[in-house]
Amino acid sequence: MASGFDETLLHEYDDSTLAQLLKRDSRLIAMRGGVNYISPNLITKAANPNLQRDAIKSTNLALQLGIRVPVIKRSFQAGHSLYTVMERVDGMNLLDCWHQLGWLTTFKLAFQLRGFVRKMRTQTSPTAGGLHTGDFNSIWVEDLYGLPKHAGTRAVVEYFNFWGNFICPPLHERPKRPEKLKVQFSTAHFVFTHQDLAPRNLMIDKHDKLWLIDWNLSGWFPIYMEYVGMQNFVIPSTWKWLDRLRWTIFSWISVGRDEARRKAIKSGHYWSLHSRLGRYEEVLVEGADPWDTNPNSRKPGL
């Protein structure tokens, strides 16, 4: 914890003083997710300012919806990072303790999360992206062109239909739009989505209450992205086959199940990294250089 830091004076420190107090102690070693404990009741996290602003806005919306999230006490910028100081959840994350939980607790937590997700899905938007920036921040969207700010349904659907049904072309042939869609991606609007509900971001306190943490990737996304993100983690060696089964059931109760789209998105992500220019004829106006990422070179709506 930070030596010299007094949490009762949190709102009295100016930004530079607070930054120095947090950096001064060599014991502040980054823990999972870049989180540091600075006092018995507070933690701090530093990240890209745009990601943090999206996370702050999402956290506050979740709080308004009655979802258990750490309350943000203060945010400030120091150098190239934006720091958030928030309350510490006194509990364990599910990644570490899942193998110790029984079926009764599993069902209790599943229905808590189901209630949270239902509340989140009442919030909709005609455009996708972070609540502050409008950026489509997702580990699954990484080809050269990505998606524009405040992307509409057409852009998002075409992106996932292209990569989710991608078939590697023969050597020396250009990638092209799939003629037949084995997996159909569609969405009428976007819903408020955490997008990273893996067990590392779910915490259980001593009263068996569930908390949702790390909202950096949250925003307006297609409804199926919640299930996809929930399966994106390395299963610990401590989990036995029964623990994996409980997680499958827990996920199904909480957010539903969409294995076809999950597998298609995962496969599409692989191909998008290996054929990063694959969509250039789909995205760029005629005559544009394939390496041109200027928004003005994109076709309208894409």
TrEMBL record:
Pfam families in UniProt: APH
Location of the Aminoglycoside phosphotransferase domain: 176-237
InterPro entries: AGP_Transferase, Aminoglycoside_PTrfase, Kinase-like_dom_sf
Gene3D superfamilies: 3.90.1200.10
This protein's name: Aminoglycoside phosphotransferase domain-containing protein
Organism: [Emmonsia] crescens
